[in-house]
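Re: the pair you flagged

First of the two:
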Amino acid sequence: MYLIKLLYITCIILSSALTAKQNSNNQKAAKQDSKISKDPKVKISRDAKAKIDKSASKKFKPNIIYIMADDLGWNDVGYNNAQVKTPVIDKLAREGLILNQSYVQPICTPSRAAFLTGKYPFRIGYQHFVLNEDRAQCLPQSVGMFPEDLKKLGYATHLVGKWHLGYCNWRCTPMYRGFDSFYGFYNGGGHHYQHTLNGYLDLWDNHSPVRDHNDTYSTNLFGSKAIQRIEEHDQTKPLFLFLSFQAVHNPLQVPEKYEQMYAHISCKARRKYLGMMTAMDEQIGLVVKALKKKGIYDETLIAFSTDNGGIDNVIFGAGSNYPLRGSKSTLWEGGTRGVAFVHGKMIKKKGTVHNGMFHITDWYKTFVTLAGGKSEADLDSIDQNKMLLNGSPSKREEMVYGIDNYFPPIFGKAVIRVGDYKLTEGNVGLEPASSWSPKEPRCESNWFQTAVYALSNWLPNFISDRIVLMRPSVIYGYLMQQYLKENPDEHGICKEDLSFYTNTDGMRVLEKCNKKLRLFNLKDDPLEKNDIAEKNPEIVNKLLKKLNGYKKEAVPAIFPDVTHDGHPSKFNGLHRPGWC
């Protein structure tokens, strides 16, 4: 423990020194920012001049507003938990159609990739981990995104907020992937007021860095920018707006007035987290008002979803997935069954809670078909318009939660659902995230969580990647094994899964354990408490055969080694494209 404390204090000193150096560099940066927007590599999106299908243009095309929350827990909206103050979201959901079995990926990048491409992440190389700023990672240009299709159908397309799908090359960025405009940040998170990650700026307006919004709260900033896009919209075209909030992703930061709305809650982290949720709800309300003021509310479909489950400890978050099992970073229901709904005048069965299966890939074909177009056939996406608009049964009968063929599969190896049955193979997610969410988040962190947080947040990325999650590590393995000894009842995976961190022959040990199969009937057992695999071998074999078929279609994960080529110190203190 003394070693961890020493590392923590040392890194604070190093971080302060680096910040001081960065501030001096930033004084020079403003003079060079204009050069970035004139980068010769930057060209208009390849779809900007695409011809509009004349026959499709005659069909009514609703405006589409898709709002994505970041790391939102199942129990963190008012219509699932009366303690949470989200009156706008509650009203939209209750007057629309609630998707009670809407599934996402367990972590940020894979979810966003699945959403925009309509494909399971294992088909496009985005199945293993989130995108980090020190890896030259980019979604292949050969993989299409539905905003490109919407542009061809005459839509104005805008992204406000989080991208997190790659930016080492300009061609990886939103305006090359079907968006007319982009206002937001490239990475997975950052400071909600300073708009920095590791002390370096990550806030962009199209191809230009934004330096004049320091101290503007990110939720308010992105909400106001979304309103601006609505106000300036040319109504001769239909609108697609992807409002990708940074909230409620850590760090837990929110204006004081929102935290005070939860003064009765003793846990400060939980107060902040719920305050962030209420602040987001307020901005969504302002967006709805803007649609009405513009006169386009009646022609607009509003969709809302989280990107993954919440984190139910105060080190990395303060969400709650109660009563589901697991949290973000696991393939249990708590990590993948997400809050979602649709709202609009075109929905016939308003006030409905729909229990049909819906997957995040389904938005692709659903939106393109709604816009009057047709999607390519080789997608995992299913057109669910009849489900959303008419309340008809879901067309989806099976789905893959995830397949990770990169060692080690820390967020789950392979899980499939067919009908009511869910089959898991091997690791479903690391501890302690695999236990059942308590009704209130774990406010007091244990020494294991504190140690991992200190290592991952204060050491430079190229060190912490190897110490904390990315590579087999003696230190992390020791911490994990000690935690398991102290918390045996919370262990939801095969114990041998963790030994690869300290075993030189880790692959052999991991694979031995990863043959373990579990089967759950989600209709009878939605909390995943009763493994019925031994009593139902025929069902296990049927699902395993399907799962193995999908495995054969998995491509290698895009997960390059750490590089310093894109370090912001080389780019005037900016997280910016242009280094791969």
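Second of the two:
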Amino acid sequence: EVIPHVIYINNPKLGKKAGDRELILFNDILVASSLVSSKHHLSVFYQPLNAIWVSIVDTIEHHEDLFGLKIQGPENSWILCFENDPQRGDWLHAILERAGLTEETMGHGFRNGVFEYSDIGIYSGEFRDGKRIGFGKIELPSGWVFEGYTDENMCAGFGTAIEPTGESYKTGWREVSEGDLIIATKDEYGFWGIDNLTDRDWALIGTGADRLIKNKNEPIIVEGKKNENLYRILDGQLRVEKKVGSRTTVLAKMSSGRVFGETAVLPSLATATASVVSDEDGVELSSISITILFELFMNYPGLAMRFYRDLAIKTSSKLRVLTSGNQKKEEDLVVEDEESITEEEHVDPMRELINKFGLPSNEVLISEVDCAITGQFMKGFGKLYVFQSTIIFDSKVFGHSSREKINLRAVTDVRRKKNKLKIKAKKGKKWSFSDIENITEIMGLITSLWENVARPTEQSQRSDSKTLHKATSSRQEISKAEFTMTLDDWNLIKQTAATIIDYESGDKIIIEGEEQQRIYQIARGNVIITKLSDNGKEKILAEMNEGIIGEMSFLEPGPASASVVAGENGTSVYVIEGFIINALFVDHPDLAGRFFSYLAAVVAERLNQREKEMKKSSRSSRRKRAGGSVHRTRSRRNRNSLEKNIENY
């Protein structure tokens, strides 16, 4: 019988001219009739009972003598004003009863419902504390549908995007309000997607590559020595060799299209685990500068993510083979067995720029940035396009087009002066660019490209070459550090994408054979990794008191290859859900490359350790076999001697 006055928090002026009836409680919704208007979206005047949060308000601004209830919905909030506490209590009881809530759960926690927003369309799924956080589906007025995990705090999500045409793909998305739309920021090259490296990725990776010719038995990578290049076979055949005891064993053969040497990009792996040698005369290779690769990673976070993720998956596959116990012997292991790269037909949207600027068809656009060229009289604003061997500045002001073309082979100096990028070339040409937002990254990228195309080769330039190599090595170390997980990175993951779970001794954390896509970080205590043997008994593979577990199932969705149990009471682990961290990558794209770089390094280190264990086991088996042979020979000699002695006797 008591009808409260409703204050619309987003705009307290609304509802001032309302009649007596201000709030209607239905079985599934609350309606503030005083806010109903054809000028307002329905989200202003209704709240779904399956997606509301209720809290008691002790003090109401400008209404200190009234008693309040706050109704928090997915988009808007109200305050219900009552003359006394019993009236407020009656309404609170009625709302909680219809909504299926208790006084303990009314103000926080998860809900599952449907709501039509004023800007983004209809959302059906999970909410948490008034926001879209969890699994659900967003149906836009434009016809787009996004289904998966979404986090309104990050304005990002990850799952399946369905275009109005019906085409669907796995991707991430970022939410940007524009009228009644959410725009998915999936770029033309699958930036947020989980696809493998694309053709354009390989074109970018090949930027500044050297062509090498190797004759038979000439080494490219030497086991135990540092490798600082990424290679791709253009023509011919190579072999992968590894020392097993005192002999050299051929592990694999590689031919055109294969890529190897990727572990050079991992900060924690300094030396090669196998040798790669030319198997015939005239083998043609493309040698790719790791320094250039790091510069590309910093400018293209999506490329870094796909590259390191691809490397982590391939390394994980090799480790899974070793862990499964299906291998026959150490000599059969393929250390560098990368999939051939297939050329797919596609339309490159940057091809128009290459044609527009009259560049060679094999040019690749590396980066583009807004900037200004500083002239004698005034600035000219435009875009700076950085290709693998050419820089183009293009501007159009008041209908007048202006263009500067800089051939990197003609450049004599690149430097930064305050906030300006200065470039000098032969014949006294020079340019000055300002207003570059990411000037440090662009400076490093252009310098690396210039050093590659203008690399000195004459003996008379050896001193300059040494200086250049020193500068390049220094920048390479800095670049490697850019792709190392920092304390801030881990804190961000723990705060955003991780929950902590406590276990007692013997509790199962991961069960062998069960599918999951989680990563576990040991917080305290220790864990035991076990695997069922052929006779059904559990074999202990390792014990750990730090680091991550579950990374193989995260990289390659499928059954867990081993079980993990808590080794002692009070063991705690951080659980990182795959779908949440993928949404986090959308919000922090630079984090993705560092995270997958970390996973690739962890898996590669475990692969190396497993290979060492197998080698040690192989040596031990050979010693035992050799020892048994000597023992049997000696026994036969003793028995023959005894028989002869008996006969003589």
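The radius of gyration is 33 Å.

-B.
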